[in-house]
């Protein structure tokens, strides 16, 4: 079976993990944690990086530090991996789900702007200027764009909308390490960006995350909150309810080794993307995800649309090519059925019905890609 997406561990992973084991530094303190978070921050061009257990908890902490409470709304796209929405629900806030574009599968900013224009009001208070939802009277505190599949939407416009309505931007850039918008890295446009190093992401620590920010105060608070909010080196004194969310050294050691190989892996991904796009153009009814000229995409997971998605999925998986459908849209999940969903054409549903992801590991070989393409072509001979 050619796997969908598996880690590529061909560098110093063994050496660094052995170092942790040999020295006993396996837990949440240790040089690799600091090194890894700085490496990620440096790569993306952010001032500070805060390592955490995974991307989901990073998104949770970012919202807490943004002041999101259970009285608030947080805006998110309707097409995303569940973790985005789970993190919003952990804060008690109510999501406002926005349908996505049919072309690039990112949040539809026309819909968003239209909604905010008609359904919100802004007031100045002693604590700041805030936007409220007319129908729920809840404050709309933050917007969480998701760079779906490492692709990015119109970030200039999103930033302008956020500014106009006083929304904090927290980027779910968990899939977007290596992606840039106008030469600026994903995750650096708002208050926080969050990266994930889960097993299927572009590089992996097994499980892990890094939050990035340019704000020193927020960075300090993020480290504090993720380490049980302890105020003293020696004594067990804590000044708020904290979390045990810090990444452990042994996993960060893998991360350091992964970051060393990342530029090469990213090159491979881009070659893979170019190969698939070239070989699959005009095959069956395949339509690719649109990418704006402003975006340099990391090509994390190759995904395309076809009206024969279910049939192709079954065919590939039974012919040695692991493939997967896309995420079920959030508004269709039981837990979010009561939440606000802004849409006109329900593009989300169409994307869900037609999108399929095919093998995209960083270490995928030419032979494997040729086999994947061959099987896809075979399928369309009779479909
Ligand atoms: C992977 C992912 C996350 C969560 O990251 P974890 O490290 O797995 O917790 C969040 N949002 C999206 C869009 C993701 O793809």
How confident overall, as mean pLDDT? 97
Which fold name is given in CATH as the topology of the largest domain? Aspartate Aminotransferase, domain 2
Question: What compounds are bound to the protein?
Answer: pyridoxal-5'-phosphate
Apparent shape: globular
Tell me what portion of residues adopts beta-strand conformation.
15-25%
The oligomeric state of the chains shown is single chain
Helical content band: 25-40%
Instruction: Write the CATH architecture name of the largest domain.
Output: 3-Layer(aba) Sandwich
Task: Tell me the distance between the termini.
Answer: 23 Å
Low-pLDDT segments, ≥5 res: none
Radius of gyration from the alpha-carbon trace, in angstroms: 21 Å
CATH top-level class of the largest domain? Alpha Beta
What is the SS-derived class?
alpha/beta
CATH superfamily of the largest domain: Type I PLP-dependent aspartate aminotransferase-like (Major domain)
How many individual domains? 2
The number of helices is: 11
Report the sheet with the most strands, covering strand number, pairing sense and barrel closure: 10 strands, mixed
Order of helices and strands: HHEHEHEHEEEHEEEEEHHEEEHEEHEH
The total beta strand count reads 17
Give a written overview of the molecule.
With 383 residues, the chain is of the alpha/beta class. Helix content is 37%, strand content 17%. The chain folds into 2 domains: 13-259, Type I PLP-dependent aspartate aminotransferase-like (Major domain) (Aspartate Aminotransferase, domain 2, 3-Layer(aba) Sandwich), CATH 3.40.640; 263-381, Aspartate Aminotransferase, domain 1, CATH 3.90.1150. It has helices at 13-23, 31-44, 55-65, 82-90, 109-119, 155-164, 216-226, 249-280, 309-317, 347-354, 366-381, and strands at 48-52, 72-77, 94-98, 120-125, 128-133, 139-143, 168-172, 180-181, 184-185, 192-196, 209-213, 287-288, 295-296, 303-305, 324-325, 340-342, 355-357. The strands form 3 sheets. Strands 1, 2, 3, 4, 5, 6, 7, 10, 11 and 16 form a 10-stranded mixed β-sheet that branches. A hairpin with a 5-residue loop joins strand 5 (128-133) and strand 6. Helix 1 packs antiparallel against helix 8, helix 2 (31-44) runs parallel beside helix 8 and helix 8 packs across helix 11. The model has no long low-confidence stretch (mean pLDDT 97). It binds pyridoxal-5'-phosphate. Residues 54-56, 80-81, 83-84, 146, 172, 174-175, 196, 198, 209 line the site of pyridoxal-5'-phosphate.
């Amino acid at each position: 079976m050619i796997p969908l997406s598996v880690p590529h561990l061909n560098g110093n992973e063994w050496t660094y993990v052995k170092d942790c084991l040999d020295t006993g530094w396996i837990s949440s303190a240790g040089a690799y944690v600091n090194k890894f978070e700085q490496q990620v921050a440096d790569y993306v061009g952010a001032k500070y990086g805060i390592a955490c257990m995974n991307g989901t908890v990073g998104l949770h902490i970012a919202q807490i530090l943004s002041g999101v409470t259970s009285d608030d709304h947080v805006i998110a796209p309707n097409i995303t991996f569940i973790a985005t929405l789970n993190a919003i629900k952990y804060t008690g806030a109510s999501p406002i789900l926005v349908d996505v574009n049919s072309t690039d599968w990112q949040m539809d900013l026309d819909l968003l702007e239209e909604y905010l224009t008609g359904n919100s009001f802004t007031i100045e208070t002693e604590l700041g200027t805030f936007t409220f939802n007319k129908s729920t009277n809840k404050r709309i505190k933050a917007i969480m764009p998701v760079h779906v599949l490492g692709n990015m939407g119109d970030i200039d416009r999103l930033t302008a909308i956020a500014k106009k309505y006083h929304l904090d931007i927290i980027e779910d850039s968990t899939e977007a390490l290596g992606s840039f918008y106008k030469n600026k890295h994903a995750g650096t446009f708002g208050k926080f960006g969050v990266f994930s190093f889960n097993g299927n992401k572009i590089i992996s620590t097994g499980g892990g995350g890094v939050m990035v920010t340019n704000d020193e105060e927020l960075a300090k608070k993020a480290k504090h909150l993720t380490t049980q909010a302890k105020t003293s080196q020696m004594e067990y004194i804590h000044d708020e309810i904290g979390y045990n969310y810090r990444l452990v050294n042994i996993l960060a050691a893998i991360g350091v080794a992964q970051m060393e190989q990342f530029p090469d892996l990213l090159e491979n991904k881009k070659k893979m993307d170019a190969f698939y796009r070239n070989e699959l153009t005009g095959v069956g009814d395949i339509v690719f995800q649109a990418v704006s000229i402003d975006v340099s995409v990391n090509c994390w997971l190759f995904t395309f649309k076809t009206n024969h998605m279910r049939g192709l999925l079954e065919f590939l998986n039974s012919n040695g090519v692991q493939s997967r459908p896309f995420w079920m849209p959030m508004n269709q999940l039981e837990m979010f059925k009561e939440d606000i969903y802004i849409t006109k054409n329900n593009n989300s549903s169409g994307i869900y019905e037609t999108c399929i992801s095919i093998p995209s590991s960083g270490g995928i070989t030419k032979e494997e890609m040729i086999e994947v393409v061959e099987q896809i072509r075979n399928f369309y001979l009779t479909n």
